[in-house]
Each structure stands twice: as C-alpha cells, then as structure tokens.
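Notes on consecutive records. When two proteins share a document, each keeps its own sequence and its own token line. Never mix them. Below: protein one.
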Amino acid sequence: MTDLFTPPATVLAQQIVTQIERGDYGDAEQAAIKARAHYPDHAELARLHGISLMQLQRHAEAIAALEEAAQLDPQSIEVQCNLGSAQVANGEADAAIERLRAALRMSPGNPGVLMTLGNALMAAARFQNARDSYAMATHGAPAHPGIRLNLAGAELELGNVDQAKLHADEALQLHPRFDAAHAMRGRILLTQGQAAEAGKSWLLAEQLSPKNPNYPFAAGQALEDAENLEAAVKAYERALQLTPNDGPVLGQLLFLRRRLCDWRDLDDLSARLQQAAADGSSVVSPFVMLAEDVDAGLQLRCAKAYADSIEQQAAPLRKQQAFTHAKPAPDAPVHIGFVADGFNEHATGLLMVAMLEALADDEDLELHLFATTADDGGAIRRRLATATTLHDVSALNHAQVAQRIHDTGVEILFDLNGYSGRDNGELFALRPAPVQVNWLAYPGSSGAPWMDYLLADKTVLPDSLRDTVSEKLVRLPRCYQPNDNTRVVATPPSRAECGLPEQGTVFACFNNSYKLNPAAFARLMLVLQQVPGSVLWLLSGPDGADERLRAAAGAAGIAAERLVFLPRLPHADYLSRYVHADLFLDTLPYNAHTTASDALWAGCPVLTCTGQTFAGRVATSLLQQLGLPELACEDEEAFIAMATQLGNDRDALATLRQHLSQQRTQSSLFDMQGFASDFKRVVQAMSARYRIGRKPVDLDL
C-alpha cells in the first residue's frame, strides 16, 4: 500500500541499484523488502530483490524472488538472464540452460542471453557449446570485453591456449584496465610455463582492483613458482590482510615462511590455519598441513574438506566425460598407470625407476607412465621410458589427460603426487580408471571418494592409525617406499672443499627447509652444545634462509660457523657428500623420506624420532627394514640423548657405517626384485577383485 509520502517505485529502485553498486547488499535487500511492501506488483523491485539476495549468496531465495519478477513481467529478457545466473549459482546449470534457450527463442541472437547461456554451459562443463554461445554473442556485441574474456576462458578449458590468449588480448584492447582480463592472461601464461610473466599479469589485476584478494593470492603462487619468493611472501601478506582467516592464503604464506626459515609470527599463523581446518571454516591444503604439528585425525579432516571442494568442481566435467570401464578378459595383462610430475631427475623418478625396470619384462603387467612435466633430458627419464610406455602429457589439461588415460585402457591408476607438487586431485576426480590408488609422494590419506586404495606398510600406518585413512588400506610386507639400487655415489671432494672442519663429528640434515621448524632446530642445537667440535651440515635454503638459521643458532649460543650449508648438486655428487657425514639427524613432524633413503644408501646412518602421523614415521619404516630399529627413537629426549651419545663415540659411528655398507647388498630395503614381486601381488589382488565385481577391501600382504 502506498501513500503520499511513499516515493515512486522508480525512485526506490534507483536507490536499491545504488546500494548494490556500492556493495551494500544487506542494505539493498532490506530496502527491496520495504519497497516491495509498497509496490508488490512491481517487477523491477522483485528483480532487484533477487539480485541483492544473489550477492548475499542466498541463491534459493534469489531464485524465488526472480521467479516472482518473471511472473510479473513474462517478456523480460533481463529477468530470465538473472534467473539463469541464479540457477547456475545454486548448482542448477542444466535448468538454467533450458531457461536461457527458451529466452533465446523469445529474443534470437540476444548477446546478453547468449553470454549468460555460455556461463551456464561452462558451469555444466559443456565447454565447446559454451565457446559457440560466446562466439555468437560477439556478433551482437562486438565491443563487449566481457564476452571476449569468457570466450578466452572456454578456449582455455578446451586446451586451445593460443586461441585463449588471442581473445584475452582482444578484451584488453577493448578495455585496457579490465582487471579480470589481466587475471586471465595470468592463467594463460602459467599454462604456458611462464610463471614470472603470469605473476606480473596478476599484479596488474591487483593494481586495478586492490580489494580483490584472489589477485595477490594468484600472483603469490605464480611468483613462488618463478622462485621470486620475497615478492611472493608480500603478495600473500596483502591477500591475508583482505581475508585474514582464508585457509588457502594462510597455508601458502605459512608454508613459504617455513621454506624461507622465516619464523616470525609462525605460531600465530599455524594456530589460525589449524583452527580453519578444525572448524571447517575454510579449505586448507592437506600438503601444507603435513608440516604442522597436528594429529592424523585433523590431517584427514583437512584432506576430506579439500577433496570435497575438488569433487564439487569436477562433478560437471565428470558427468560430461562419463567414462565407462570395460572389464578386461580374465587372461589379459593388468594395465597399470602411474601419474606424476616427477618422472625426471626428481625424488619420484629416483625412487621408482629400479622397481619399474624390475617389472619391465613381466608379461602379466603392462606399465604406462603419464608425465605431467616435460622431459628434462636426464638419465632417469630415459630409463623410465625404456622400462615402460611413457606418455608426455605435460601440455594437456586435466580433462585431456583423463581422456588419454582412459583411451589407454588403464585398469589400475596410481597417483604418485597426491596433494603434493602438481596436485592431481582434479584429474583423479574425473575417474579415468576403474581402480585408483594413492601412493608415494603424499604421505597421508587423500580423504577422497575417488581414491580406492592407499598403499603403505604397517609401520607408517599401524592399526592404531587405521581410522585416519579414508581409502581401503593395502600394506606391503616391507617399507612402502621403493629405492633405486643402482644409484651412483660419486667420489667426494675433501672435507675442506666441502667447507667442513678436518676434525669433529659432522651431523647432517639435508631435509628441505620447510621441515626444519623451530622445535626441530632447537633439538639440533642442543645436540651441538653437547658434542664439542661438531658441526651441522644443512641443505642450503632459498632467499636468505641460511642467514636466518645462522642467526637462530647464534641466539641458541652456537657459533654461526658451526652451521655448514650444502648447495644443490647433481644427484651423484650430492650422494657423495654423505661420505663425510657421520650421522643424519631427522626432523619432526615431517621426516626425511627420499632423503633418508639417499643417506642410508650412501652409508650414512639416520637417527629419527617416530612421529604420530604417516609423514613422521617413514624414516622409522626404512630403519626397521634395514635392521636398525634402535635408531628410531620414541621421543625427543631419547633422540637428543642418542644423537649426543653417538656424536661423542667415533667407534659407534664407524660400526654403524660398516653395518650400512653390508646392508647395501644384503638388506631387503634395497632389493628391488623383491619389491617388484610384492608390488605385482598387490596389483594382481586389486585387479582380481575388480574383475570379479568385488569392492575394494583392506589387504595386508
């Protein structure tokens, strides 16, 4: 009901439009409710009410308000477009497509309808149809930069990177200060492997829209990939100022600070990250959580939330690809696939190569590697390509890689990355293979419904941790981690040439810098205090990390010169340095994994402390199989005591080294024929269950 004091509906509508443009969506909603009480039959007020609700992420309510607007003005194309957008936001892409196609029949060639239809088709992962819709929209609105930008997005999803770049550049020609277009250029450049240039594009987007936290976050990721770590930290800090409790931002900043050994505000950042993971308020990277001092239960909750977000994102594309898997013939060899970014001179390639060579001539198995990084020209890549069928899929997107895997007929597919390195979650969520297995690089449960099995052993995942694994658990009768037993240990330079003193115990810790947290470092300093003349040999870290560690040593009363840093070297040269290392001191909560294998193979004993999570129990598994369980300590006090005792006992260290020299040829840890035999039994058991229609189950070999 209106009266003489009620402004006209058009005036009220304009006031609501102004509030929406200012971002005052709550005020806009309340104003719309009051205005509609006066003008219940006014379609535009109902439409604006729906838009304000959309901006408040109340999508179902927005649809209801817009449906009322459509009833009041059935011929309004604008209302139909708004309704389509609301349905897409509410997860109803197919319904939106039908609605918008009907609107297109009412207004053929309407660029607004075509653009919104393209958005709905993108949400349904119908990328080719979306591209066609956007392309038609450009004919009716050739000067609209947003349509060009959306066209670029569709081309990028289709894997047409050059075409995507062309359309992004067209959008920028039409609107040089279009922040989203600069962000799209960042995505395209990153796809092309130009991380530094991608970072610049996202920084430009941030300059144009400084309140959008996505831009500094994306810039930080690109700058980190480009190893411009100082700039990456600043970008993450700016993003965190805009979104103080955002899990991805907290995680990336915290992890990068750990890499840099920059421990300022570390406890505060870690507490905030753990809170976000615990209360589910924000998605947190599971890999980042491995380096935090948390229990396996929280790691699983974190992984499940992360997997849920991927599942929602991948569901439309999985529906479009709709892979089906024909059961192999009973006597057909098992087609096994492995996906990784490390089929080069990388930890994954180094661990896997000898085992794959041991399986190369097995007629019961057919091995396929899907390499998501390009050939580095190294010996490991050549060996892998000789032992298997290697597919270089580094230039393909997830959908294309999934199609390649499916077309290859892989029956059992191993994810050798998990949530580490180039995260394969989106790829495996598409279900390119009927049986999918989490193994090796990510030491924890994926929490993912698309992962059937986790391959481990009874030490890294004892019965007490079974409830922290979402997959069916398969445990090998040996350490789950294979080794290259053909690794060459080069002749080392002298101690002096390595920067080491001629006398005194050399403790080594060549773990990545993000594993060397303040508590672990403090333990190492206590050991140095109690072993006179000893030094600690560390892997050199990035961007000032070494200087920060020297300063931390000084604060602990240890002379800076007692810290020696090893630069990154070719693998054989790196292995040779262990000849001068008397004892490797491990870290918690994230152990040495490949690095521990390297040390043991090169003859350097490893002292570890057994943790409470998979990531903190790997070195213990290695030592138990090697016959040195006494070097796996139960707690920090025992670790410090053992390190001190051994560091002051040259004869004991010599005995350990002699034992390791014998075990290189005698221990099952380095028996890759035996490992290959166990692995074959695993895949045959998985295959047999699949082929007879049985669901995955826990298996202990």
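Protein two starts on the next line and is unrelated to protein one.
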Amino acid sequence: MFRSIHDSLEPKIVTLFKRQGYSRADFIADTIAGLAVAIVALPLAMAIAIASNLPPERGLFTAIVAGFLISAHGGSRYQIGGPTAAFIVTVATVAMKHGYEGLVLATIMAGIILMIMAFVRAGELIKFIPYPVIVGFTSGIALLIAFSQIRDFFGLSIATVPPDFVDKLYVYLAHLHETNFIAVMVALVSIGIIIAAKRHTPHIPGPIIVVTLSALAVWGLGLPVETIESRFGSIPSMLPSPVWPEITFDKLRLLLPDAITIATLAAIESLLSAVVADGMTGTRHKSNAELLGQGVANIASGIFGGLPATGAIARTATNIKAGARTPVAGMMHAFWLFIFMLLLAPFIVKVPLAALAAILMVVAWNMSEIKHIREIMHAPRTDRIVLIVTFGLTVLVDLNFAIQAGIALASILFIDQMMKATHIRAVENDEDDPDSIQNKSIPHEVEVYEIQGPLFFGVAEKLVDTLALFEKPSQVFILRMRYVPLIDAAGLHALEVLHERLHEKNTHLILSGVNPQVRKFIEKSHIDERIGKENIVDHIDKALARCHELLARD
C-alpha cells in the first residue's frame, strides 16, 4: 500500500526520467517550447494580477515560482502552471477584505489543503463534481472577469472597483461619462490584433504582439492612456526574498473558507487542464501527484509574494503545440519569464492597461463555455437547472457558495431521479423472463413484490409504505431484490422496519434474489438474525420452497 501511495505521488518528471532518460534533443525542444509559453504567459500574468487589484509583479512572481514548481513536482507531462483568470474574483475579494498579507496566508493554507488532498488520494474524486456545475461556475467567472475589465477598457477614473457584481454596475454607470475614447480605441484594436493573429499568424501569440505594439504606441505617440507605470510605478527586476506571513488562530479561522475556495479552484482547473493535455497527446497524468505539485507551488508562491496558482489550460495547450517533450518545458518557461523580468522591466511598464484589459476580455470569452452551455441547454431539465443556478450564484452571490449550492442541488436532483427510477411494486408477468411469476406456482397466502433499483435513503420510505397497499395481511411476503445493486443504512433500516411490521401481523418476510454485495451489508448489520438467515435466499425458487415450509408449519 505504501508503495502504491508513493507511486501515485511521484512527480511525472521523475517517472519519465526513470523510464526513458533525457537527451540533449529533449532539452532543446523543451527550451524552445518554454520560450513560446513564456511569451504568452508574460502579458497574462501581469493582466491577471492587475485585474485582481494587485501590482503586476505579483503575477510575474507567481508565474516564475509556481510555474517552475508545478512542472517540477506535478503529475502532468505538459502542464503549465501560474496565475489564471479563474482566480481573479476570489483573489480580489480576499485581498480587499483581508489585505495582501491575508491573501498570502490564504494561499499558503490552500497549498496545505491541496497537499492533504494528494495524500488522501482525492485526485480521482474531483471527477465526480457534476459537469453542469463546472460549466456554470466557469462561465460565471468568465462574466465576472469581463465585467472587472470595464474600468480599464473604457479608461474610467475609478480609484477602487468594488468586488460585488451589482456594486460594480452602479459604479460603472456613475462614471461612464468619463470614458476615454483613446483607451477604448486601444482596447478594440488590441482585440482585433489578437483575433487576426490567431487566424493569420498562429505561431506568434496575439497577446505579445498587442503588448509590444501598444507599448511602442504609447511611448512613440504619447497616447493619453493609463499605463502600468502611471498606476503602479516601476516593477522590480528580481524575485523578492521569501517572507512568512504572521499566523494566528483567529486569522486561520477567518481565512479558512477562502483557502478552501482557492484549493477547490486550483484542484479543479489543474486537473481539467491535465485532462485536456492528455486528450491532445494521448498521455496519462497522475492526479494525486498533480495535487501535490499544486500544493507545493501555492505555498511557495505565497512565501515569494505571489498569488494563488493552478494549471493553465491555454498555456498548457501552447506548450504542447510548441513541441514540448517533458515537464522541463514548464520549468524553462519559468526561467524565460525570469529573464524577461530581469531585462525588460523598464519596457514592460509602458504597456497600457487598456491593452491588458482587452487581453483578459478575450480570455473571458474563451472561458465562457458558450458551446458547452448550448449543449447543456438541450440536456435534461435537471442539468439546465443546475447550470443556471450555479451561474447565477457565481455572478450575484459568491463563488464558494455557488460551488457548494451547485453540487448540493445536483445531488438532490440526482437522488430525485434515482427515486423515480426505483420501483417497488407487485411482480408483473413477463413472458421473456424465465423466472417470471407467471411460470411459478404461487400459493394464495403469499404476496410477491419486487424492488427495481438501488435501495437507499431516497426510496427507503417507499418500501415501508408498500404495506399500506395490502387489504389484508398475507401469511408470507416475498420481496424480490434481484435488481437491487446496492443498499445503504436507510435501506437496511427500512428492511428492519418492514420485518417488524410484518411480524406484528404474523406475516413472514422472505428476501429473494439478494446479491452477495447486498447480503454482506445485511449480515454486517445483523438484520439477517432478525429476519432469519434461512429467509434470505438468492433465487425465487428457493424463496418459494421456503414459503411452502412456512405454510406447512403454520
């Protein structure tokens, strides 16, 4: 068991090096791929930090530190980690409520939670989050991201933008008359360049073209738009020294809900990104190792003045298309970003914020899941309800609450569907069934009912209520359970109550067609001792034989 846990947590890079080694050609391919990804990641890292109401260097620190560690310790061959747009709303809210130091502590706590998830092997459990919930909160986040960029997109003079969606709307409407049309033009041209680059020069990332041309335009033409330098001043050209935040029990308790939200988002997005990478390359990621790598990276990111980090789907796809071969490509992407920060800091600060807002607008559109929303809107009504509720709560209330409520609602609706799919009824004749009651001799003193579906808490009450259907009690009641694949504690209790009530009416209970798995739980709960071991059989013929014994004895 220890070995299996160790294997599941072993970094992918170690597994690959053990299996196939690492050649000079691999290093060259990974270095080139890392450079391509770094070019894409540079403007995104800064834009995400600024959208979170934090200085741009925080995004760069995250991309460098967390990006390196996610590749070095993670479980995916091609994963690129760093700050992502999915965190913008949460990061901005936590930083506004608790300050940057509170955000750092929440990020470190999230890293510890992710490591715990890895050690308890929770990587496989993420897949059980309902798909409409994922699409609902992802599209909700996309709307919030786009909405958060309106200030810089329109060049509005707003000192602080509130995190709440409705409050943002009121503030934007109050300042809309201040629109800077030069900023709007810069943003629209930037979007046009990104779209054109994707169509005509796919090998050159649109965002880096936008950042370069817009910075040159501001410097050369003196455009009256806000830049990184005018709002934040200069950015450092080196990583900061590691610093631990002040830790108290009250702070830990206060920040725990936010840390759980960050950890949940990091786990979901990183594993989704790993799945996408597997689909593009035919590889297979190690989910628990990926969670461990995410945990280590988030702890380090917090210590080095960064933001929460996770796997980035777009950057991971770029890494694959650029010819990456191993996780070294992700580590090299972090190295190249460090070089960019070291050499290009004076130029980077000339980038207009309207251009960065345009980049995030495009990111938000790509995150919006329009195609998947259309698919779900043609799915069963329950999926549509879950999608709409999760989306609405994400936008209007809170991301953490939206995820919890979405999962809870999806679970309730699933239970309702399972209840409707489980039938408890008098056995009907079926000519195609060799064990049909039509082909058996059933004494008049015997009632035969059948359960079709799992016997769990949602349908347990139905079983007990079947007694109300009897006009007069029979001497023997056979409950056929051949189509009961599983049973839970409520189902076991329902069998016990059914036996007691039948016993009060001097009616014998026989369970027929009980599969080994269900029988094991019946025996563990000792209900078989009350019903009688001889009254629990695996076939209807044995149940009828037992009927004749009981009737003869009575």
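For the record: Residues 24-153+165-220+248-411 form one domain.
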